[in-house]
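Escalation from tier 1.

The customer reports that the assembly of two entities below gives different structure tokens on two consecutive runs. Tier 1 could not reproduce it. I'm attaching the input and our single run for tier 2 to review.
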Amino acid sequence: MVEVNEKIAIEHGLKRDEYKKICDLLKRTPNITELGIFSAMWNEHCSYKSSRRHLKKLHTKGNQVIQGPGENAGVVDIDDDDAIVFKIESHNHPSYIEPYQGAATGVGGIMRDVFTMGARPIANLNSIHFGSPDHEKTRNLLRGVVKGIGGYGNCIGVPTIAGQTCFDESYNGNILVNAMTLGLVNKNKIFYSKAAGINKPVIYVGSKTGRDGIHGASMASAIFDDKIEEKKPTVQVGDPFTEKLLLEACLELMADRSIISIQDMGAAGLTSSSIEMASKGDLGIEIDLTKVPCREENMTPYEIMLSESQERMLIVLEEGKENEAKKIFDKWNLDFAVIGKTTNSKNIELFFKNEKVAEIPIDFLAENAPMYDRKWIKAKLPKENKFSKDQFKSLKINDCLKKVLIDPNIADKEWIWDQYDHTVMGDTIQKPGGNAGVVRVHGTNKAVAAAVDSSATYCHAHPLTGGKQVVCESWRNMISVGAKPIAITNCLNFGNPEKEKNMGEFVECVEGITEASKYLNYPVVSGNVSFYNETKDRGIKPTPSIGGIGLLSDYKKMMTMELKNEGNYLLVVGKTEGHLDQSVFARNILSEFNGPPPEVNLFNEKQNGMSILNLRNKNLIETCHDVSLGGILTALSKMIIKSGKGVRLFSLEGLVNKFEFFFGEDQGRYIIEIKPENLKNVENILKKDSIHFDKLGLVEGDKISLENDLKLSIDDIKEGYKNWLKEYMVN
Amino acid sequence: MKSSVIIFPGSNCDRDMDVALKKFGFQNQMIWHNDIKIPKSDLIVLPGGFSYGDYLRCGSIAGKSKIIKSVIDFANSGGLVLGICNGFQILTETGLLPGILLQNKYLNFICKNVFVKIKNKENKYFKKIKKEVLELHIAHNEGNYFCSKDELKSIEDNGQIAVTYCDHEGNDDEKNNPNGALKNIAGIFNKDKNILGMMPHPERMIDPFLSGEDGSLFFENLIESL
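Tier 1 run:
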């Protein structure tokens, strides 16, 4: 056996003082298996050692919250005993090394987190970030990730209903792949990971354990360097077919009451799943590693404990239920093995070939894991740019609009979502490409909306504002489809927390998220943190991804963004100040990359959103779309392209700068379509509620026009917008 | 009318099919792949999905499964057998339908609405459908129909082409071919027209809030014709 020393501990990603702490706690030198377990549990990915103290500040409570952070996934009440289980998780590091498998197993992992709780997955989403389109790796990474997400989700038969794709050079060496799943469960039949009772059988089910993914979680907590290709063996390989069987078998077993606790073997595999179950139940656990079904010969205890082979679950069962349970897993052709039992020792004890190979008090691994109060610096709000009149003099709205619409972050992403099965399960009533994906709650009048958002540009410019903004954008997506926003899950992707600037970005984004979610009563119920997204000293822009869900109590009231009828009025709800700093227009047209992000006014945000829902409930709105990247004209163009109907814009009196009005990215705004007979009524309601709005134009003809300033046919705006990504991918 | 939907490990459109059949009046039952006998049925459906993980080749392991002999016997005795997507792939693997489904021409999974032209209405599957062109939905990676020249001649001569990909006006030319399928073939019959395999999913188009409603026409006709 390998002799453990400080050098080996450091090779395992532990810091010198962490290794010393381990020896002090154990009062001896750990053996190699024990060291492996410590390194897996104490790495950033599993222990949240840099983030824990800040995550405690998140707003996690609300009337509808059944389960907040700390479980496999969050759970919210959607009435009538129905609940939604949902979470977002990162799989960034593996996806950069091996895009197909990295992304595929990301999807597999998040689905397991959801069905572990007894929920049938009903929708998948994802947020993916790539480097600059010009970067040599981007195209292949994008292709691989999309194929991986599709390959896994399509096979399982869960629709991928929405997503988000961004390009920015800060991701050149570190792409982001965040996968989110929603599941439906009866709120009285939720399963948790907390073990209870001693001498209960510990069951291993699913795929066999192989040598794949050993130390995956440690890799996810490391910075990339030139030797990145060598890390390929630490990427797990997914088998969606087995996952589908595991899903069906688990749900079948869950139909009766024999499961005490259940946990999927995700990051750090058998190690973290067994320790988490015991730790939450304040118990000990004893495992005979000889009994673990292995795919390869002569696997050592170290390898078995640290393997991240996919599609495996650990279950604590009621005594005497083993045979019944085994029958179900036999039916689905899955491995089933009793590998141990719960104990009252409060230790994890591992045996291999009748020999004890490890013994560690559980609280050393969980509660006593290191927690750091890392130093961080506060970001200053950048100074606003003063654009001179001259800068706009030679610009034409026509040209600017066309240019903005082919910005990689705005252009249509159909090439991506066409490769995801988004209609299986027969309840998808709003497909990808809208404000949010919407699925019906099977067999009811209810529907659930979901979307993922991120705004790295804003977060980079000013993390506090950016953090608030992402939550608001998510909230707006829910409102735009007519759903009442319920809760969010966050995936916090950041650079190296040991750098004060990066840590500051994290702390302030979390602060922003907290402030907005508290004000909007839009609590965080689950999530994960991914640090060390850094290659050769270059970190990513701070990128919190927010996955939001909302509820439609009557799915027939859902709104879409397609324009409906000729002669209807279009209004912009919310005030347009014309904020160009950090906008797509500023970057692409004015070549200005500095300045503050648009201000977030939570009071207006809430008022405007609630007012839209109120108007919809009164059946006064036909269509709704929130205004985000690229401002009013971009939003409008998307509505036009989707519906094939044109718009005639009114000339606005007293407008100082048309570019600011049409391309500014002020927050809290929506474009709504109103029937002429409802116009007066809507105007009165908005005025009564003191909500600012502008009358924008009419649905009319087959072009977008504004007197002498703008005239483009639908095909003119459609071509670049629709084709940019397709053409990029074939080149 | 009684229908049976076979569930293979990896099937994932079984529930959707069950919902659709029941909505249009079938008494449907779900049959597990390890069963040997299929209860008395007027229609057997092989649903979409990834049976046995689509390992080896799409549909190939399902084509050798325990239940499949009963399906073949039922089909050979004139019973109606419908295979959608993976079900179509399984039917070609069993030899009940000629040809094979290759990977899509552009090598990507495709999930979108398409139009198909009904090429033959002299059968129970399309008899009473008034429209000539249906808007349906496809979601597959291997839908690129292929068969030998001789087989093609024979299926054309026997009116075995059921539906072809086309535009909304029914032009079934190469421009409207999403996956490279030979002659734009989206679905075919056996000689006796009691077996139909097709790539599009009518079960995903059965109410106005979904991708469309033309799937309803398919099921309405089916229950009426039986």
